[in-house]
Amino acid sequence: MKIVFDTGVLIGFSQTCLLPLFSEIKGDIGEFLITTGVKYECIDRVRNNMKFKLSSLRINDQLNDFVFTIQPSDKQLDDKTKEILNLTNSIFYISGRPLHIVDFGEAECLALLSLTKANCLAIEERTTRMLIEDPNALLEILKRKHHSRDIELNKEKYNKFKSMLGDVSVIRSVDLLSFAYERGMLKNSIKNKEYLKSALYALKFNGCSVSFEEIDEYLLKLK
Amino acid sequence: MHRRKSKFSAGKHKINHNSNTQGENVSFINARRTKPNFNHQWDDTNKQRFNKFTNLNVQAKGNINSAVSQNNNTNKIDNYISKIDFKNSEKIISGILEQFRANDLEILHRIDEKTLEEAIIEYRTDIAELAIIAYSFRKLLSKKHIFNSPNWKGFREKTINDLQLAIELSKKENKDEYNKKIKEIENSIEKTDQLLGHFIHDIVFNARTKLASSAYAYGLSLSQASNLLSANKDQVMELIGQTKISDEDIKSKTMFERIDFLKKNIPENKEKKVQKK
Hints:
- The complex is a heterodimer of chains A (223) and B (277).
- Chain A is built from twelve helices and eight strands.
- Chain A is α/β, with parallel strands linked by helices and 223 residues long.
- A five-stranded parallel beta sheet of chain A has the order 3-2-1-6-8.
- A three-stranded antiparallel beta sheet of chain B has the order 1-2-3, with no helix packed on it.
- In chain B, helix 5 (89-101) runs antiparallel to helix 9 (152-170), helix 7 (125-142) runs parallel beside helix 10 and helix 9 (152-170) runs antiparallel to helix 10.
């Protein structure tokens, strides 16, 4: 299986020192793809920031060990990215104006998904995830936040976006880690349920968009 | 001892103190709320600055807890905010200047909120920078070790001059000088905070992170929010992890459903084969 990774998942794993787990699970899962934009955001952009330099060095090690395949930027990817960017940023209208909710980085990941026929996107943040899975829920959030304004969902644009993307599923770092644990891929590092619980909470506190309720519900039902 | 409830519900958790076996409802994340009340956190000078309008009403009516005076205060602020055109940089800076002069934290807070909202809707980085400035001024004014420092007077005078100049420059068609002046104001805040503040990261850096996390809460993607405010994405993620944003979201799929997808697409026998090898 091919999984396209967004910056957030790499940062989340790196900040929680769980990054080496990728090399443990890669063999069993398949191909891990990232864009050059993701590489830039994780490594090059924070190279001079001493708070995050260690994190960037760890991610760079993973790239050097060929855990992740970097998809070089080309005209086809750029064109697709622009197309997706135009579509996603005109799905929601606020007071008659398009709301620019998605950035080039996320659009590039979606374009890579579409071009490589990968069917899984690993992303921490909720906006892109909800845009793919449940745009009506995202509309509710936008309405809740911008309470004084008229907000509309352009279904025609959304359907076009969905057909371009195809049948894609979204996972977060917590889902990937839990899956690997259940399959017994991490016997050396995540020894038992208590380790898993701590790792899931660490990922949440580092920005993964998962709720306490979701984690607790999962752990409660996990054998 | 902290004991979380089995199901997280809007951040309410019970904390059982030794002296209080009944426990009390406090926020799990925002520990500041455990302080007895707002007044205990600040001294009189700060209280006066924050409650400027309230105090005026109190003096007039002689009733400290008057709900009527508080309503009047809120109405006054609402009226003031509604008169500002948040699409217009000149009007926003004028508002910031006026409230910075008046040391009014509450209105500065409303200005930074409304300015950010407009920056999100219009996706305008120039307006987002003004939200950062308003937020930073509010933070500077709220820190008594900075506000009461002998260096404050000089910073205040320079800032007022810079803001007045920025208002004039914002009227020009060519925005180069205006952008330069805005950057200069931000640098001046950074320098003052580095000189007088207690933290490694300066107020402007924190303002970018904080406002980017708010923009994310407003529905922008993480990268979009970080770029609008020129914030560090790693830092924004860290802050988002400390908020209740994820807990208040509408759930579309459970963790089990997502893991099931992976299980279906990654056959188990493949794993066993690898282990045998």
